[in-house]
Each structure stands twice: as C-alpha cells, then as structure tokens.
Amino acid sequence: MTNTSMRTIRLGKRPTLETIAISHEPIPTPGAGEVLVRIHATSLNFHDYLVVAGHIPVAEGLVPMSDGAGEVVALGADVTEWTPGDRVMGAFFPLWLTGRPDFANNAAVSGETANGFASEYVVATAASLSRMPTGWSFEEAATLPCAGLTAWRALTVEGRLQPGDTVLLPGSGGLCVYALQLGKALGLTIIMTSSSDEKLARLMTMGADYSINYRKTPDWGQRALELTNGAGVDLVLEIGGQSSFAQSVIACRMGGRLSVVGSTANAAPELPLRDVIMHHIQVGGMAVGSVEQLRQLVLFVEKHGIRPIIDRSFPIEQLRDAFEHQLSGKHFGKIVATF
C-alpha cells in the first residue's frame, strides 16, 4: 500500500441523514488474529438507515453499515486462513461464528455496537470473514451477508422448509428478492406481495408462483389461503409489523411458522393471540445468521448460479442520496454504495 490515509464515515453525537460526511483518517494496522481489508462496496439495509438517522442509539464516532465486501491487503500475526488478495465479506455478527445465537456471540453488531464497513479500510478478525462467491463483483458480494443470509436462515435453518412447501414473501426489497431466488432453488412455492403491479410482474418473471397486490386486496391473508386451496402457507416472512401482522397470521397454515425478520412500522402490531394459539402457529424472531451459515450460503449460490439483483449503485460520497432512494420505496432488489 502506498496510501497512508483512508476515507471513512463516523457518526456524530446526534446522527441524521443530513450529517453523513466523509472524513480522512490513518489506515489502521491489524493485530494478532486480524486482517486488514480494503472495502470496495457496502449495501444498504433498513437497519443501517435506523442507525445513520439516529433511530437506534449508538456510540459517538461509530462507523456505520453492516455489509461490506473487499480484498485482504495485510495480515496480523497468527493469521493462516487468508492471504493478501483474497476477496472476502464481513459479518453482521462478527463474534457469531457457529452454533445457535446467544448473548455473547450476538454482542457485537457491525455498524451498531461495533464499527461497520463505511470505511475504505477495515480491520476484522480473520475468523469473522467469509470468502466471496466465485465470479461475483464486490458490489454483488456486499449484498449477501445481511439480506442474503437472513433469507437463507429463515428458509432453511428456522423455517426447515422442504421442496413443495409454500412461503409468502412481502415486497420486492433485497431480502425478499433473495428469498425468492433461494426459494425457487430449494423447490418452494412462492407467493409474493407488493403494492406495485409492475414489481409483481417482474417478480413473476423471476419465478414467483403467485402474486398479490396488497393495496388492491387488503385481505391478502385470505387470498393466500385461497391460493393454497384453504390450507395456508408453511412460512410467512414478516417485515411490516403493525400494518401486516394480522394478515400474516391469517395466511399461515395450521401449525405454520411466522418469522419476524424486521419491521418497517413504528408502532407495535396487534397480535391475534386466539388465532396464533388455536392454529398452532409458531411465531419467532430472528436476525441474520452466523459466519458458518454465510459460508454455507456461498456454496449454495455458487451451486445454483444465483446472482443478486442490484437496483442502483452510489459512490460512498452519495450515501445520503442512496438512503433517500431506499426510503422512496422505488427500488427493486438491493442498493449498494462503493469506494
């Protein structure tokens, strides 16, 4: 390396979208068990917006963004699994290497309780990294560790879905587009919802089996029952919270699963407890996944030739514009920012 300084973003005491700014700092040096990664791309998740807009309290000076992809440029002592030039991805939970989640391995969250990837160079523990899928660009790889892994874990680990099972996916953001792609490769039947007929048509061309415009069909849970001949779906991914929880419960089959992977609503949902109880519905929350699961996902997308859908790419200096595009709801798939 010939450069001695790097571009980075650090949040102020009261962060807002308007206060996002690039600063310049010395490039850090990796310690024992660590590697220095030159970050080429990050991708936007709703969690990242909540952080940079000040809705999730974080320490002053935090580097945001939970996704990152780049190349290894230097090794600390005792690192044997990586070499300079390796193309790698960071982890949402850098301490969660394998097994089930617990308070210890979920204590560090990239871009929230630990520094994230909105920096040109990042020091990461060697064990927390995963290699990128072969042939993927840095922009593509930056979309996988959060949205892709959340979809993978929801379908295969928590959902335990089998070929022929049915899943309902809400919307056309990065998470649900990934879940559609992964779900089709797993042999699932997919029902997609959106408020846009144009987006639903595109989802159908990607392999969705059924589509529901929830604006035109407010009782979309009932419509999902009709599409499954009254049986209901095996799994619903829930991200709407207050506005959609009741319909998600209606859509579930007897003994089905409702996996809460996020919320775009400000208020708490009303939980229809009688239906949950009498229909034996399993309601569970989950966030992203482990490093081991990310590495398993890499093998799966390579085997099935899956590539992410990227809506737009912004230079890191236009990160605020990227978030405003995210908030507009016009995007289809993932939004990325590059160094």
Quick summary of this structure?
Helices cover 27% and strands 24% of the residues.
Features of the shown structure:
7-stranded mixed sheet; Rossmann fold; Quinone Oxidoreductase, Chain A, domain 1; 339 residues; alpha/beta; 27% helix; single chain; 6-stranded parallel sheet
Written account of the structure:
The mean pLDDT is 94. The strands form three sheets. Strands 3, 4, 5, 6, 7, 14 and 15 form a seven-stranded mixed sheet that branches. This protein has a six-stranded parallel sheet with strand order 10-9-8-11-12-13, sandwiched between helices. It has a two-stranded antiparallel ribbon with strand order 1-2. It is 27% helix and 24% strand. The chain has two domains: 5-143 and 308-338, Quinone Oxidoreductase, Chain A, domain 1 (Alpha-Beta Complex); 148-285, 3-Layer(aba) Sandwich (Rossmann fold), CATH 3.40.50.720. With 339 residues, it is of the alpha/beta class. The two termini are 16 Å apart. It contains ten helices and 15 strands. It has helices at 46-52, 138-141, 144-158, 174-185, 197-205, 220-227, 245-251, 273-278, 291-304, 319-328, and strands at 5-9, 22-26, 34-43, 69-75, 87-89, 121-125, 130-131, 166-170, 189-194, 210-213, 233-238, 252-260, 282-285, 310-315, 334-338.
Number of domains: 2
Overall CATH architecture of the largest domain: Alpha-Beta Complex
Radius of gyration from CA coordinates: 20 Å
The number of strands is 15
Helix content: 25-40%
Q: Separation of termini?
A: 16 Å
Shape: globular
**What is the CATH topology of the largest domain?**
Quinone Oxidoreductase, Chain A, domain 1
**Unreliable stretches covering 5 or more consecutive residues:** none
Would you tell me the overall average pLDDT? 94
User: What can be said about the biggest beta sheet?
Assistant: 7 strands, mixed
Q: Give the helix tally.
A: 10
What class would the helix/strand composition place it in? alpha/beta
SSE order, one letter for each helix or strand: EEEHEEEEHHEHEHEHEHEHEHEHE
The first-level CATH class name of the largest domain: Alpha Beta
CATH homologous superfamily label of the largest domain: Medium-chain alcohol dehydrogenases, catalytic domain
Q: How big a fraction of the residues is strand?
A: 15-25%
